[in-house]
């Protein structure tokens, strides 16, 4: 058909900026796609045909899109002319050029324009085909004329082996500036990783909104903040009445104000007074919807004098880029986007574009490119500079340059360091020193540890120094660790090295092990040294002498991570704040080394360490703490592992001591009473001091939060507690010799965690004071065999006084209680603990009681109850806590009864409970399989109990199933794998509610007791899979005989055609047999259908449909023959929590008087109900393989009910 141009007497109105015409099979996924993305990214509204298949004729909608586009970009490739669609498209585009002044921009993609003009080469072949196929000579002449015309237009030619990105960038810029006349800023040619950043900033800007908005772009120097802002500007600036991009580093305040007035106002401004300029800017901004970008702002004053939020008119947007997040916070900017470093794949792409002009490097250069990426660590500036410098260089040259990245003055590294140095130069002197300390010493260390050291400096370092560097994007803090980009770390170390390039003793900081060894052993230290932190690459000894530190009069920090020092230190500088020797135990050295190389201190003869804040020297050879008695500024003293230390002297002259750590001082015998009254002490630890006999007799430590006496096996008495000691939250006396806790422990009103495990001598005296502590949440007192009983407790509030000690109000916040292995024979102590309404976990394993009190059900928040190893336990109360999710009864060999299980139960362990009868086990199975029917509240339920058969109702077993029901069942590498495929045959509105899985485990030796079992479930529906995975793990219990494992899995009402289940186990007991059983439910039923046939419904048989089909039984039969392989008679004597129905007539003919000669037999099992019952009941058991009841008894369907009985429910 002839192509008609839509006529219009009106001036053209453009719906699209650009229409893209191209041959799909040539360039759809390459050049054209990249061009479209670039146009779209720069805010150029572009029409592109996304359909892969086209018809013979161009649709009217397509013609309209051409007519409503201001520019048509035609990508002419080698197969362009072979498409009739493309040629018709071209003809219509040229019509619009003549009649609607549309601009046409040809791109000759790897073709010679002369071939297009003259229709030679591949274009000649295309027209040969057209002339054979089409007999419309006029049409063909029109196509030839169009190709000749477009070939004569000015355009771009993309040749082979040329960089397409260059042409795309040029096309976009020319369209923006020359055609659309939009404000446009030059951006990087290769904007790798930029797309997502730009989109996120645009989302924050919400350009369509009416309220003014300010967005901050924050990040480190060279990370790409400006590039993101420019790209956003290019994409959205045309939507505003005025726009301006101000770079803060160019010009002073007045010049910036005049630039802003000129670009927004549209005329030249030359205001000479900044205050006058402020007033003019405010009036101008109020009248217009503007886009303003303030780039690289580092002073709040700049912001306040250029723009304020209240000046902005409706719909205006401001973008601020800065390295200082604190500045954005001070300006009340709430919407902040942080520019992150590039991921490795994007970094490789950017480097490749810069170095090779293509997306990926060749294999020869790949290893070198990855080395460069490792150096840059995703920093775009570094990647750009390195890539540009290495462009067109040989492999040998690449290798030489990358091997010398520490040569800071050489390119490209000098340029990188110069840019990064800007972040350092903006800091004040104190913050510069903090930065250098972190770069040289503390990268990767804990924030609180580093802050403590920095704050000890005489520079008066502010408390928020770390936060300031974070806000300036110089460091980050993750998981309380201080992180810094490697390039910034190298820059900091370079600054220090430049202080004295040749002699390390003239530098302010020493960190390299060779420099430290040189300075200390040769006495080359000077007054310029402020800090030394050394970590040796291997264990070594650094010999010191009495004068090693003599010249370092300004030394403040000395930290050794792993070095061992020998000699005797007689002098330490007065300014020393922090001494730390860490990481090396004396046992790491041979005896010959120990005899010759032991570092000793004689601090009495040296200068006064009046500024010393921390002395940390674990595993030292110190015997006495001479010289430590009067260090007024000392806050931390750690001598852990000092095996020769015997006594702690009077420390009352250390009033600021906050931390005293003396763990594993195995010869320590005595601690002075003064330690008990250090008011600022927060942490006090004597863990593993096995010879300690005399501890402070009284404790009045008002600031103490943690006290550890674990492993003090010879310490028998616990100090009396003073009333002011109310901050203690953690008390650990595990494995100590303490016999009794004093009644004054009631003063520990803020105690949260008490650990008293393995206290062989601890009795129950005064434990009522512990149970009354209001904030106590965790009590661990297991394996205390002398507790035996807790005596009588009052169940009422007792606010009286006991020997002057007030009895605390009952605890209401305890969540964890462990009294395992305490020889408890009575459980009456649980009665008064009913006040503990928040109790969630109780361990009473390995005790001697016979039963639990009924009150256990009152612990409404109890979720985990452990009673393993209670060999005398016979029964548990009928009612358990309603929210109980885990119940452990392993090795309760006398247990005879199992209570009714709460609906939220997830795990129950009954390993080696041989006192359970067969009837009790059968009842347990019935209860478990009915447990979650009201609503499968949990994702899965796991139970283990003695037995050698899976529940008989299970329809799919690895023992009996035919080949099409079990895909595999094999042993491998000590593990097992079984795969089931279950056809669902779901009826309308019916769903798969869940699955029951069961297996029989055989016992294994100790080393294989722990195991993991994985259950993978795939539900297929029309070829689509819905996947779930569950894990079942063993607890390491020794199984004396075979045990049954049962798991119920909630599938959240899934629908599908087939359910595939794979069970696999890597370690642990061997699986003898496993089985699977589905649980169905109709969506409109108020009570879910049962999990297959239920034993409570009388003489019900389990049905195997495959066997039914093989025997050609009628599909309505619910009673297979007696020799059916899955027929199982249910024992009517087995008790169940479900009330059993009476047995009913067995055939449909008895009910309806109908008989079909085809049926060998058929049966029915009715469920009766009274009229006032509202729950609909299904007719008999539901087959797991798709068979459903014939009739539902529903009082609303009277006709159906009249078919089988009268209104009283009698058949």
From TrEMBL:
Residue intervals of the TIR domain: 14-179
GO molecular function: ADP binding
Pfam families named in the record: LRR_13, NB-ARC, TIR, WHD_ROQ1
Basic and acidic residues bias locations: 1121-1130
Keywords for the protein's UniProt record, in alphabetical order: Leucine-rich repeat, NAD, Plant defense, Repeat
InterPro entries cross-referenced by the UniProt entry: Apaf_helical, Disease_R_plants, LRR_dom_sf, NB-ARC, P-loop_NTPase, RPS4B/Roq1-like_LRR, TIR_dom, Toll_tir_struct_dom_sf
Region feature (Disordered): 1115-1143
Gene3D superfamilies: Helical domain of apoptotic protease-activating factors, P-loop containing nucleotide triphosphate hydrolases, Ribonuclease Inhibitor, Toll/interleukin-1 receptor homology (TIR) domain
SUPFAM superfamilies: L domain-like, P-loop containing nucleoside triphosphate hydrolases, Toll/Interleukin receptor TIR domain
GO process annotations (BP): defense response; signal transduction
UniProt-listed PANTHER family: ADP-RIBOSYL CYCLASE_CYCLIC ADP-RIBOSE HYDROLASE (PTHR11017:SF578), LEUCINE-RICH REPEAT-CONTAINING PROTEIN (PTHR11017)
Record-given protein name: TMV resistance protein N-like
Organism: Pyrus ussuriensis x Pyrus communis
Record lineage: Eukaryota, Viridiplantae, Streptophyta, Embryophyta, Tracheophyta
């Amino acid at each position: 058909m002839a192509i008609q141009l839509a006529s219009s007497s009106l001036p053209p109105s453009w719906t699209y900026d650009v229409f893209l015409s191209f041959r799909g099979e040539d360039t759809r996924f390459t050049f054209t796609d990249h061009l479209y993305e670039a146009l779209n990214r720069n805010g150029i509204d572009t029409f592109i045909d996304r359909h892969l298949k086209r018809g013979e004729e161009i649709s009217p909608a397509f013609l309209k899109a051409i007519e409503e586009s201001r520019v048509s970009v035609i990508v002419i490739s080698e197969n362009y002319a072979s498409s009739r669609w493309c040629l018709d498209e071209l003809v219509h585009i040229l019509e619009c050029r003549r009649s609607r002044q549309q601009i046409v921009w040809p791109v000759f993609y790897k073709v010679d324009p002369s071939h297009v003009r003259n229709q030679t080469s591949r274009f000649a072949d295309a027209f040969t085909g057209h002339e054979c196929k089409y007999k419309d000579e006029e049409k063909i002449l029109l196509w030839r004329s169009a190709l000749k015309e477009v070939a004569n237009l000015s355009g771009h030619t993309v040749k082979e082996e040329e960089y397409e990105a260059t042409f795309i960038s040029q096309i976009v810029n020319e369209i923006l500036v020359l055609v659309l006349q939009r404000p446009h800023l030059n951006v990087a040619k290769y904007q790798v990783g930029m797309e997502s950043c730009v989109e996120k900033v645009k989302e924050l800007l919400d350009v369509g909104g009416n309220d003014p908005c300010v967005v901050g772009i924050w990040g480190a120097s060279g990370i790409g903040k400006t590039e993101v802002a420019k790209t956003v500007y290019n994409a959205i600036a045309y939507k505003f009445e005025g726009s301006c991009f101000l770079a803060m580093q160019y010009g002073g305040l007045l010049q910036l104000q005049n630039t802003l007035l000129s670009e927004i106002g549209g005329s030249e401004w030359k205001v000479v007074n900044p205050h006058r300029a402020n007033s003019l800017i405010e009036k101008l901004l109020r009248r217009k919807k503007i886009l303003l970008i303030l780039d690289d702002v580092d002073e709040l004053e700049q912001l306040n004098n250029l723009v304020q939020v209240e000046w902005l008119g409706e719909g205006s947007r401001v973008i601020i880029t800065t390295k200082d997040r604190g500045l954005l916070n001070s300006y009340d900017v709430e919407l902040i986007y942080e520019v992150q470093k590039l991921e490795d794949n994007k970094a490789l792409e950017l480097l490749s574009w810069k170095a090779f002009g293509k997306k990926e490097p060749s294999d020869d250069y790949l290893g070198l490119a990855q080395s460069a990426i490792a150096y840059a660590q995703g920093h775009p500036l570094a990647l750009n500079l390195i890539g540009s410098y290495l462009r067109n260089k040989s492999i040998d040259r690449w290798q030489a340059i990358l091997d010398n990245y520490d040569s800071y003055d050489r390119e490209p590294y000098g340029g990188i360091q110069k840019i990064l140095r800007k972040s350092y130069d903006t800091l004040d002197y104190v913050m510069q020193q903090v930065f250098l300390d972190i770069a040289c010493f503390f990268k990767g260390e804990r924030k609180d540890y580093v802050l403590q050291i920095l704050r000890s400096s005489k520079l008066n370092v502010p408390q928020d120094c770390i936060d300031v560097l974070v806000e300036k994007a110089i460091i980050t803090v993750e998981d309380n660790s201080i992180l810094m980009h490697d390039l910034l770390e190298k820059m900091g170390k370079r600054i220090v090295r430049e202080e004295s390039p040749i002699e390390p003793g003239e530098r302010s900081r020493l960190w390299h092990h060779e420099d430290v060894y040189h300075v200390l052993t040769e006495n080359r230290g000077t007054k310029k040294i402020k800090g030394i932190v050394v970590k040796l690459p291997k264990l070594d000894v650094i010999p010191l002498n009495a004068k090693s530190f003599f010249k370092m009069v300004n030394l403040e920090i000395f930290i050794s991570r792993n070095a061992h020092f020998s000699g005797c230190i007689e002098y330490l500088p007065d300014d020393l704040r922090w001494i730390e020797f860490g990481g090396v135990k004396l046992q790491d050295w041979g005896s010959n080394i120990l005899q010759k190389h032991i570092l000793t201190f004689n601090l009495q003869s040296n200068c006064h360490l009046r500024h010393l804040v921390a002395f940390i020297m674990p595993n030292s050879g110190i015997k006495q703490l001479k010289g430590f008695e009067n260090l007024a500024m000392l806050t931390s003293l750690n001598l852990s592992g000092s095996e020769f230390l015997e006594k702690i002297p009077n420390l009352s002259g250390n009033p600021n001591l906050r931390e005293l750590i003396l763990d594993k001082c195995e010869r320590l015998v005595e601690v002075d009473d003064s330690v008990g009254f250090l008011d600022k002490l927060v942490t006090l630890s004597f863990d593993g001091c096995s010879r300690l006999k005399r501890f402070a007799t009284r404790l009045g430590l008002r600031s103490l939060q943690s006290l550890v006496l674990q492993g003090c096996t010879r310490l028998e008495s616990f100090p009396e507690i003073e009333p002011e000691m109310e901050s203690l939250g953690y008390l650990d006396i595990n494995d100590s010799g303490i016999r009794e806790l004093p009644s004054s422990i009631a003063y520990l009103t803020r105690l949260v965690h008490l650990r008293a495990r393995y206290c062989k001598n601890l009795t129950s005296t005064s434990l009522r004071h512990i149970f009354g502590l209001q904030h106590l949440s965790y009590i661990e007192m297991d394996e205390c065999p002398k507790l035996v009983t807790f005596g009588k407790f009052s169940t009422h509030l007792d606010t009286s006084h006991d020997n002057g000690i007030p009895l605390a109000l009952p605890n209401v916040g305890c969540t964890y209680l462990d009294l395992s292995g305490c020889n408890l024979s009575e459980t009456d102590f649980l009665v008064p603990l009913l006040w503990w309404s928040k109790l969630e976990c109780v361990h009473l394993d390995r005790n001697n009681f016979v039963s639990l009190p009924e009150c256990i059900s009152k612990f409404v928040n109890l979720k985990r109850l452990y009673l393993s190893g209670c060999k005398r336990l016979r029964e548990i109360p009928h009612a358990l806590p309603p929210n109980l999710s885990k119940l452990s009864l392993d090795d309760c060999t006398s247990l005879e009864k199992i209570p009714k299980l709460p609906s939220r139960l997830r795990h129950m362990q009954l390993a080696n409970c041989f006192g359970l009868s067969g009837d009790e086990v059968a009842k347990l199975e019935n209860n478990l399989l009915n447990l979650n029917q009201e609503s499968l509240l949990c994702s899965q339920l796991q139970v283990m109990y003695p037995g050698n058969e899976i529940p008989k109702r299970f329809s799919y077993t690895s023992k009996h199933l035919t080949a099409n029901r079990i895909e595999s069942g094999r042993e491998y590498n000590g593990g097992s794998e079984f795969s089931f495929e279950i056809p669902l045959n779901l009826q309308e509105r019916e769903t798969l509610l869940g699955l029951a899985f069961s297996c029989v485990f055989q016992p294994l030796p100790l080393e294989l007791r722990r195991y993991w079992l994985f259950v993978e479930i795939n539900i297929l529906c029309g070829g689509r899979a819905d996947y779930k995975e569950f894990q079942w793990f063993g607890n390491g219990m020794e199984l004396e005989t075979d045990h049954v494992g049962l798991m119920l899995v909630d599938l959240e009402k899934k629908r599908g055609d087939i359910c595939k289940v794979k069970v696999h186990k890597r370690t642990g007991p061997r699986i003898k047999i496993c089985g699977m059983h589905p649980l169905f439910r109709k969506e409109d039923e108020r009570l879910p259908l049962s999990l297959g046939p239920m034993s409570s419904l009388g003489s019900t048989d389990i049905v195997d449909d495959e066997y039914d089909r093989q025997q050609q039984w009628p599909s309505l039969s619910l009673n297979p023959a007696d020799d059916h392989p899955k027929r199982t008679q249910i024992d009517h004597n087995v008790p169940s929590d479900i009330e059993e129905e009476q047995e009913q007539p067995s055939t449909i003919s008895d009910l309806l008087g109908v008989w079909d000669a085809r049926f060998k037999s058929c049966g029915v099992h009715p469920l009766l109900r009274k009229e006032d019952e509202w729950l609909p009941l299904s007719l008999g058991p539901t087959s797991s393989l798709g068979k459903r009841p014939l009739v539902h008894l529903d009082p609303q369907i009277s006709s159906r009910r009249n078919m089988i009985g009268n209104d009283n429910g009698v058949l």
